[in-house]
Amino acid sequence: MHLRAPAILIAARPHGETAVIARLLTEESGVVAAYVAGGRGRQLRPVVIPGNMVEAEIRAKSDSQLPFARLELAQSRGPWLTEPLPAAAIAWTCALTASALPERNPYPSLYSALSALLDAVCNAPSARGWAPALAAYEVLLLRELGYGGARPEIEGLEQALEIMRGTEPLIARYLLADTRNDVLAARALLMQRLERMA
Question: Taking the model in full, what pTM does it have?
């Protein structure tokens, strides 16, 4: 395996003293887990943040081996992690995507939607600008994995919250059956912050 592509870093777990196992969402190869040497070191720590866009070079000698990855930062989400609401949205969408998607199955529509959603979270003046996109992303994820229906028209924060309340049982039951408590805690925090705005 040899892949060089833009990717969204959706999860990073420490491995050993300084390395990281990163989960990367690419447009053509889907989710790919890879070993990043020095991922917790001073140079790569700002790169290995969930939500960041990276240029990834991923290599493996065989399909059964965990690939090695070299990452270059393309776009940082770091500045928004100090803001409670954008940080909660980035944490939730990345955790949901990392937990729900199977590895090495391409989902180009989810890659595009997640990229656009993260851009909206970071560039909209308030959550009213990106909450409908977040609700639409959850519906799209359920639909792409075979658990949802038609895409609803979402207008405004209140309607987005209503749709998100409706999708929560489906997400908990179908997408997060094994990791429900850990991942849904990120969603609970996000919903709490969004409902304060409504």
Answer: 0.91
